[in-house]
Design a protein that fits this description.
Layout (H helix, E strand, L loop, with lengths): L1 H48 L9 E7 L10 E10 L6 E12 L2 E12 L1
Length: 118
């Protein structure tokens, strides 16, 4: 009888541990995707900051994989960037890069913003 009680307690503990492990895996996967999106946004922002001031323009690209190319497998991201001249003040340009993706948890996005001057 004691062995059955001990076995029942062990099974309850192991099922809780399984749930905890699954939750940890999901959280790590989401963190990896957010990091990949932030890196893709930062790469585009740096590219735009290195572009000649007069050539800055908004645009989109995608799909882009987590590896940063369009040939990888797995999750894909889309990037969109806007360029607003004389914002927030005259002589500067505001650049906003938004990276979006959709997974089993829904739609997500990461947004980075920078201001450059002439």
């Amino acid at each position: 009888m004691e062995a059955l009680v001990a076995l029942a307690i062990l099974l309850i503990m192991l099922s809780g541990l399984g749930y905890l492990m699954n939750s940890t895996i999901q959280t790590n996967r989401q963190a990896r995707r957010q990091t990949a999106a932030a890196n893709l946004a930062a790469d585009m922002l740096e590219t735009l900051r290195g572009t000649a001031y007069g050539s800055l323009a908004g645009g989109t690209d995608g799909p882009v994989s987590e590896a940063g190319d369009s040939t990888g497998s797995g999750l894909y991201f889309s990037r969109q960037w806007t360029v607003a001249r004389d914002t927030p003040i005259v002589g500067t340009t505001s650049i906003v890069v938004i990276v979006t993706w959709t997974d089993t948890l829904g739609a997500h996005n990461v947004q980075l913003q920078s201001v450059v001057n002439q």
